[in-house]
Write a structure and sequence with these properties.
Number of helices: 10
Radius of gyration: 17 Å
Shape: elongated
Structural class: mainly alpha
Order of helices and strands: HHHHHHHHHH
Strand content: under 5%
Number of strands: 0
Oligomer: single chain
Distance between the termini: 35 Å
Amino acid sequence: MRLIAWFISLSVLVLGIWLLWGGAWDERFTLRGAVAWLESAGSWAWAAGIGLLAADLVLPVPGTVVMSALGFVYGVLLGGLAAAAGSMIAGLSGYGVGRLIGEKAARKLLGDLEFEKGKLLFARGGGWMVALSRALPILPEALSCTAGLVRMPFGRFVASLACGSLPVGFLFAWIGSAGREAPGWALAFSLLVPALLWAAARRWRQE
């Protein structure tokens, strides 16, 4: 129960930040507003976009809108690479925050039994959770931090993070390059592709 309480607490914290400041960010970072903000950074627009996506760990950044804006500014290839990089950095930062809590402290926080259960859960099924979460709000931050806390194998975490971040980044960059707001089917597509990629990655790792 402590692991569940930890995860819920993280999710509530992220949700609370969004409720406090998310409305103002959503109003400012429409696709048009995000494009204007990126273009104001000049030749460093790509870095500004990556920074915004990485800051999604602690700020209510509308990530899919920023990804679309990167596609609008740079096109599908470069915009997708920048979008995926920002998502990857955010995930790695969350994992790092979890790992900063030493194992001894993590065991004390969760209890030995819950720590071992969490470690086993993320070693076996964590890849699916991490990959699929990249297309969703709130969950990516909480899952990344929890994965680090229970010491999910780093290589497995990075592989699953890439399986989620790459298709989501390129999908929304493509949407932005077409000058459109994200349609409803984008969410379904951004869940399906990470699942297929992670299934393929697991099969490859087992061979």
